[in-house]
Design brief:
Elements: H1 2-27, H2 31-36, E1 49-52, E2 55-59, E3 69-74, H3 97-110, E4 123-124, H4 128-134, E5 136-140, E6 145-150, E7 160-167, E8 192-200, E9 205-211, E10 221-225
Antiparallel strand pairs: 1-2, 2-3, 3-10, 4-10, 5-6, 6-9, 7-8, 8-9
Length: about 230
């Protein structure tokens, strides 16, 4: 008789345990529920000022509540004092030391897990797609430059210039039709490199070919997860 009583108690405990387990499990999201759940994220508009990694950045493109990431452009101007980065490279952007720095040390220092790769980049410079989407420009074939007719203030910062990764029309080493680069008469001309500077003064806004030995200033463009932004 005692044996049956113990068995009955064990059965009751087992039933109670199973009931408690299924009740608790029913409150949790099932894997299939998580797949189809529409998680909502904070929305951002182009030009919004946010903080990332303790510094201020502008939102480059609108980001909806369905997007878990946002594309930003650095608010200020960066300049690397190391000799290897102080001047422009004689290469296309993809092969440049700056691109290597952005893909390597820059991302590693902040934390790779904070970035999302979009179109092959986690960190880059302002590119041709950005130009076509955000600016109103006219190309001048004679000067190999773009005249900017309209530009958001957060992109065309007043009285500064910074490198883009927009390839020049002249090619890697194009020139302004210089007959003899060594002739002092043509010293005012400079060798065009492979990408443009976005240059802004109080009177003029343009994209001009980066030239030989020009100091390299830049504004990183990054794709970061919204949860990585500073509160």
């Amino acid at each position: 008789m005692k044996r049956y009583i113990i068995l009955a108690v064990l059965v009751l405990l087992l039933i109670f345990g199973m009931f408690a387990f299924f009740k608790a499990y029913s409150k949790e999201e099932k894997p299939i529920q998580k797949i189809f759940k529409n998680e909502k994220y904070k929305t951002y508009k182009s030009g919004d000022l946010v903080k990332f990694n303790g510094e201020e950045w502008y939102v480059l493109y609108n980001s909806s509540e369905k997007d878990n990431y946002v594309t930003l452009i650095y608010k200020g101007i960066m300049y690397l004092e190391e000799d290897d980065f102080s001047n422009v490279d004689y290469k296309v952007f993809e092969a440049s030391k700056l691109n290597g720095y952005l893909k390597g040390k820059f991302i590693d220092t902040i934390g790779k897990d904070k970035f999302r790769e979009i179109n092959g980049y986690k960190a880059r410079l302002f590119n041709e797609d950005d130009m076509r989407t955000l600016l109103d420009v006219e190309y001048d074939e004679e000067t190999d430059s773009y005249q900017i007719n309209e530009c958001p203030d957060f992109i065309c910062l007043t009285n500064v210039f910074y490198a883009t990764m927009i390839p020049t029309k002249e090619g890697d080493y194009g020139t302004d039709n210089i007959e003899d680069d060594n002739n002092p008469e043509y010293e005012e001309y400079s060798i065009h490199l492979s990408y443009y500077n976005l240059s802004t003064t109080y009177e003029d806004q343009s994209l001009e070919s980066i030239v030989e030995d020009e100091t390299l200033f830049f504004r990183p463009v990054v794709n970061v997860y919204k949860e990585s932004l500073d509160e």
